[in-house]
């Protein structure tokens, strides 16, 4: 499979705090690749750096054969990078359909085909197309965030914590939809706190700790890896974050945990997340 996305030795800082300390990740065309790790490991920062929301200190990002390290974020969307952010980030006062159409904002061509596909993939959105996004449940908002990202016809879809705050039944549904999106030809880079679920659907995986990649392997191997099982598959990933504070890293990580369901009300948690990261 040809390589679609290559992140090479990237470093990212928040002020003087090093959030990423030389991360290298590759994603081949047609894969689902997942990044797992405790809160503050650098997972969200990695996605934001790929999509152009965070600047590199050093290192490079290549996408579809070109260096995009200094490319503006909106041009990365046009190049084929879509993102459904942590906290969903939907527009609460807009209808479902208006939210979806915002995903195609940068496109100059007709997006009716993608709109029909979004409604086919998410029948719930079709039922509620004229409902305000902010009045939807957390699971519906997550569907809307993914559907909006797909409206740009991305070659790679970046998904940040798609199961956050969702009931177990909805989590299963979201992961099934991610697999279907991949089957339809979209490459996926997934950041997910629910490591067990993520590793079950991914082809390959990277384990991040305090801004570094500490393991990279086929996802099936990591499911059976005793260290990974002990640290990340025993329930709450938050337990794995405890050694971070003892390692000399700042206890107040740029990526902080959000309470489950905090994003359900309006999608405003994404801006709160940014405010927390900028501290």
UniProtKB/TrEMBL annotation:
<dbReference type="InterPro" id="IPR030660">
    <property type="entry name" value="ABC_branched_ATPase_LivF/BraG"/>
</dbReference>
<dbReference type="InterPro" id="IPR003593">
    <property type="entry name" value="AAA+_ATPase"/>
</dbReference>
<dbReference type="InterPro" id="IPR003439">
    <property type="entry name" value="ABC_transporter-like_ATP-bd"/>
</dbReference>
<feature type="domain" description="ABC transporter">
    <location>
        <begin position="5"/>
        <end position="235"/>
    </location>
</feature>
<dbReference type="InterPro" id="IPR017871">
    <property type="entry name" value="ABC_transporter-like_CS"/>
</dbReference>
<feature type="region of interest" description="Disordered">
    <location>
        <begin position="240"/>
        <end position="279"/>
    </location>
</feature>
<comment type="similarity">
    <text>Belongs to the ABC transporter superfamily.</text>
</comment>
<feature type="compositionally biased region" description="Low complexity">
    <location>
        <begin position="240"/>
        <end position="270"/>
    </location>
</feature>
<dbReference type="Pfam" id="PF00005">
    <property type="entry name" value="ABC_tran"/>
</dbReference>
<keyword id="KW-0067">ATP-binding</keyword>
<dbReference type="InterPro" id="IPR027417">
    <property type="entry name" value="P-loop_NTPase"/>
</dbReference>
<dbReference type="InterPro" id="IPR052156">
    <property type="entry name" value="BCAA_Transport_ATP-bd_LivF"/>
</dbReference>
<protein>
    <submittedName>
        <fullName>ABC transporter ATP-binding protein</fullName>
    </submittedName>
</protein>
<keyword id="KW-0547">Nucleotide-binding</keyword>
<dbReference type="GO" id="GO:0005524">
    <property type="term" value="F:ATP binding"/>
</dbReference>
<keyword id="KW-0813">Transport</keyword>
<keyword id="KW-0029">Amino-acid transport</keyword>
């Amino acid at each position: 499979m040809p390589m679609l996305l290559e992140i090479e030795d990237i470093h990212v800082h928040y002020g003087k705090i090093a959030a990423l300390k030389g991360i290298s990740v590759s994603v081949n065309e047609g894969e689902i690749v997942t990044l797992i790790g405790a809160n503050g490991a650098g997972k969200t920062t990695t996605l934001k750096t790929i999509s152009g929301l965070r600047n590199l200190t050093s290192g490079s990002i290549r996408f579809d054969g070109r260096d995009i390290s200094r490319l503006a974020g909106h041009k990365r969307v046009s190049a084929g990078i879509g993102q459904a952010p942590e906290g969903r980030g939907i527009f609460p006062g807009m209808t479902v359909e208006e939210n979806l159409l915002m995903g195609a904002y940068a496109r100059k061509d007709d997006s009716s085909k993608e709109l029909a596909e979004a409604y086919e993939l998410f029948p719930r959105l079709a039922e509620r197309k004229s409902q305000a996004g902010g009045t939807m449940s957390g699971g519906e908002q997550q569907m809307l965030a993914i559907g909006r990202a797909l409206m740009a016809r991305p070659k790679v879809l970046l998904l940040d914590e798609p199961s956050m705050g969702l009931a177990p039944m909805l989590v299963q549904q979201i992961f099934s939809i991610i697999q279907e999106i991949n089957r339809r030809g979209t490459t996926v880079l997934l950041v997910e706190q629910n490591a067990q679920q993520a590793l079950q659907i991914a082809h390959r995986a990277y384990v991040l700790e305090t801004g570094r990649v500490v393991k990279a392997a086929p996802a099936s191997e990591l499911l059976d890896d005793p260290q990974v099982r002990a640290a990340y598959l025993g329930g709450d990933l938050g337990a794995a974050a405890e050694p971070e504070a003892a390692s000399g890293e700042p206890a107040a990580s740029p990526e902080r945990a959000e309470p489950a369901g905090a994003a359900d009300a309006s999608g405003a948690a994404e801006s709160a997340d940014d405010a927390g990261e900028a501290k």
